[in-house]
Amino acid sequence: MWEALLRTFLILLLKLTTLEKIVISCTKKAPKIRGIIKQLNINNYALKMSALVNNRGSTLNDALVCTLYYCGLLSRPFRVIYRNVLLATLSLATLCGLLLTPPSLAQTEIPLTTSDIRTSIGPVVKGGVYNYAPSVMLDGVYRMWWCGSDRTHPGDHIFYAESSSLDGPFRARRGKDAYQIVFSPNKEANAFDKVHTCDPSVIRVNGTYYMYYGGWNSIRTETSGITKIGLATSPDGINWTRANNGNPIILPANKKLDGNPYGAGQPSVSYLNGMFYLMYTDTTGANSLDKIYGGGGQYVLRSPDPTFQSEVEELASNGFVTKTEENHTEYRQNYWVSVDMQFSDALNAWIVAHNDGSRLSLSFYPPDFSTKIYNDVQLSTSTVEGPGIVSRPDKHSVVSSTGQCSTLPIDVINATARNFPRMSPTNLAHIGIDVSAGMNCESMLPSQIANIYEGYGIKAAGLPLTFVVSGTRFQVDSIRPMKFLTKNFIEVTPEIFHAIPYGASLKVGAPVIGTTGQPAAFLLESAKWPVSGPKIIRDNKSSIKMVPLAEYDSYPTKHSLYLVQ
Predict the structure, then answer these.
(1) Which of 154, 234, 500, 554 is most buried, judging by how many CB atoms fall within 10 Å of its CB?
(2) Which of 80-94, 161-175, 234-248 has the lowest mean pLDDT?
(3) Nearest to 268 by CA among 276, 279, 259
(4) How many angstroms separate the Cα of 329 from the Cα of each of 195, 316, 321?
(5) What end-to-end distance do the CA atoms of the chain give, in Å?
(6) How much is the average pLDDT of 189-193?
(7) Mean pLDDT over the full length of the chain
(8) What InterPro entries does the record point to (predicted)?
(9) In this structure, what are the phi and psi dihedrals at residue 535, rounded to the nearest 5 degrees?
């Protein structure tokens, strides 16, 4: 009963106050109050999760009275009189809610419309004994890394294949094989990933591929989490080198040792605004579910450091805070198992694909993960484990094949069956759907439109071929240099083209300057555009002019151009 009344009261406050902070002083009921506030989707309005303070009072009455007081709805004498009168406070909240709160406010999740449900006819790749947890990147073709094992290569490996269609067939990059093994357990005696390398999450940032994966080296026990998260890097997504000196980058929290001993694994990584975001499962986290419920628990970290060894922040109940031993895994983002996420610039939201039993569903969260902002979308009722959302290289949503902003395609590949007799997940299949929240390009800011097409080569009738980089148009006269910048091309309208802010134009033979210890840079319109390799310079029929460092530094730097493989 009190929960319903508090819900009504807090919804009312959304309309009555513009305060940035409302202090709720409650100890015993604080977790429930936080949960209700989170469900109300009020983090982006007057109330902020960061304002919750739980150390001043001890009753729900204190919480409500304190809230009224800080909103200016109760004077100090009124607060004193009613401090211990729970019924009066609840009655006031209820009365205000009945008289002033529109019924529509109770529904805070924005409904999404869906269309064009699509599925593959059977598995899209011929895998090994088991196949699951794919990471799928649109990079000219669909590139897929997944966890697998076959009779020739026992143990857990990272398989790779690619296809021009999500419905397959996927095949190894060269030859006729269905897949190729690109990453395997470490043979070093004390390696943390000596037995198992699985659950890959692959992104490309500034020309470098990063693969986050789960690894373990011994038989599981009931005393600690065994799985740890590792990182490997690559110039092409095929040839990998272990990072962090071969050591894990994320360890199990080991704060809950009476649950599922799996440990920390199943990573999903995206890149947003200069930060690597990592969502992962830790069955030993302080706030993970009990063993009887599977021990699930998703936690979120972010850092500008891809190894997560420095400047790490962790998602807490009041937003992202500096990660410490004390707060680590105290806040659980959710309790699923084996999830994948990407960021949608069109929706300005995280999309999380997850399995709920045999259901494959999509959930949508704002950039700070505070609460759901769109209704869930159910994709399938016949799924097994390990969804992988099709994403552009930085793990953002791909653009609709129509080139428009009004529709967002969401495609997933995941295991749909279990083999016999091991009952391991297999049969990777494709399912997809289009969603829309009523958005269109005309209603978006230029910066948002640029974010949607970031990393794409865009083509508009009668206009220059253009690469969208760092929110600007980098126009080229020749297709030759473009092939080093992106493999994804899309046709757009002239209106979309012009909505993206202009950056520079690259003419054939454009000047290039260089100096000792610095990357060569195209000199365009009195600004330099550094490049990560010489191939684009050669193919643009340009040549490097060496200049003193002082002259090189005298030109402002626009944006760096990273060559891709």
Answers:
(1) 500
(2) 80-94
(3) 279
(4) 26, 8, 12
(5) 59
(6) 90
(7) 82
(8) Glyco_hydro_beta-prop_sf (IPR023296)
(9) -60, -40
pLDDT at 293: 61
Residue written as tokens 């790779």? Answer: 160
Read off the DSSP letter of residue 371.
S
Helix spans in 317-458 (H): 446-452
Q: Which helix (H) or strand (E) holds 332?
A: none
- Decide if 127 contacts 426 (C-beta within 8 A): yes
With cut-offs at 50, 70 and 90, classify the pLDDT of residue 257: confident
Sign of the CA dihedral 244, 143, 264, 327? positive
The model's pLDDT over 215-249, given as tens digits with 9 standing for 90+, comes to 998 755 555 568 999 999 999 999 999 999 999 99
Q: Report the distance separating Cα 251 and Cα 261, nearest Å.
A: 13
Instruction: Express each pLDDT in 122-148 by its tens digit.
Output: 999 987 788 999 999 999 999 999 999
CB of 513 closer than 8 Å to CB of 528: yes
CA distance 133 to 124: 14
Which CATH topology does 113-436 take? Tachylectin-2; Chain A (2.115.10)
For residues 446 and 425, is the Cβ–Cβ distance under 8 A?
no
Angle between helices 60-70 and 86-100 (to 10 degrees): 50
Residue spans of the domains in the chain: they are: 113-436, 441-554
- Residue range 491-529, pLDDT digits in tens: 999 999 999 999 999 999 999 999 999 999 999 999 999
Q: What does the radius of gyration of the chain's CA atoms come to, in whole angstroms?
A: 26
pTM of the model: 0.81
Instruction: Give the position of tokens 């930060």.
Output: 275
Amino acid letter, residue 90: L
